[in-house]
Specification:
single chain; about 300 residues; alpha/beta; eleven-stranded mixed beta sheet; two-stranded antiparallel sheet; 7 helices; 13 strands; globular
């Protein structure tokens, strides 16, 4: 069977959470959310894990998770830094954060050489999505073709009780293909609908049953070439802005609209949870406890 890699985006600064949220223990034996994602990925058939981290986190990251996981599956690291820019571009003097999830995945060029999945470090996705994404990637005929997939989650299964969230709201056609994806901010549930900011001081109403992206994607290596050229265009247009971000969902959406990529939406009915806010942690701990009591996970993963 074709080799597949799991790429985990763990370079976020955790600004809303107030700390390095990716490394917070949530399992009974000190497991962090990434442990459960890696466990599910290995069970689904992935052969390698690549962590995208900040260079200054490398020592702590390896101590808390990397060294343990390297005894179970092949592990590699790439570093997302503010200075990772194509030649000819400079960093705005007051900018402090890297350039977003598109740049993060682009850092994998030269390291990832096979079909790969991408996930966030601080999100729990459930087993179903890992199996579906892995099986899709393993069945691809070409490793360079722009034939991608994404796990489509039901919006109502991805909301936080402790604040608003950002989701990629998807338009999917009858064939199950992604037509459009809109990065939508400040989403929360109000009664039997969800509402979000329209960016102009008003509200957007969103169906709780609509499909959303949780940044769980399946790509061929062709995506890395698209990100490389797209990043140059982004920097030409937005590189002088202090808070501009080269976002993976927006870049995938652009490729779809231009007819340069096909994205199959693989629906997952699993309930998401994660530590977006400090108040989320206790719910996450309780949720994993329930899954362990139900036999979904062992008391100690590795």
């Amino acid at each position: 069977m074709r080799k597949t890699t799991l790429v985990i985006m763990a370079a976020g600064l955790g600004s809303r959470y107030g700390g390095i949220k990716q490394l917070e223990p949530v399992g009974p034996s000190g497991e962090i959310i990434m442990d459960y994602s890696i466990y599910d990925a290995i069970k689904a058939g992935f052969n390698k894990v690549v962590f995208i981290i900040r260079k200054d986190l490398e020592e702590d990251f390896k101590e808390i998770i990397g060294n343990r996981i390297s005894k179970i599956i092949e592990v590699d690291y790439v570093f997302q830094e503010l200075t990772n820019l194509p030649s000819g571009f400079d960093i705005p003097s007051e900018r402090t954060k890297p350039w977003g999830t598109g740049q993060a995945v682009l850092c994998c060029m030269g390291v990832v050489k096979e079909p790969f999945a991408v996930i966030n470090a601080d999100d729990y996705y459930g087993k179903e999505a890992f199996v579906k994404v892995h099986d899709y990637l393993a069945g691809l005929e070409s490793e360079d073709k722009s034939d991608y997939c994404m796990a489509g989650f039901i919006l109502g299964n991805t909301l936080s009780d402790n604040g608003t969230v950002t989701r990629g709201v998807c338009k999917v056609n009858e064939a199950g293909l992604l037509v459009d994806i809109v990065e939508t901010r400040e989403i929360e549930q109000k009664g039997d609908i969800a509402v979000a900011s329209d960016g102009k001081g008003g509200e957007l109403k969103i169906d709780l049953n609509c499909s959303v992206s949780m940044n769980m994607w399946g790509f061929t290596t062709g995506l890395l070439k698209e990100l490389k050229s797209g990043f140059v265009t982004f920097l030409e247009e937005h590189g002088k802005e202090l808070k501009s971000e080269y976002l993976l969902p927006e870049e995938v959406g652009r490729l779809v609209k231009e007819g340069n990529a096909v994205v199959h939406v693989l629906t997952s009915n699993d309930k998401w949870f994660g530590v977006t806010y400090k108040e989320d942690k206790q719910l996450v701990v309780e949720s994993f406890r329930k899954l362990i009591d139900q036999g979904v996970y062992p008391e100690k993963l590795f």
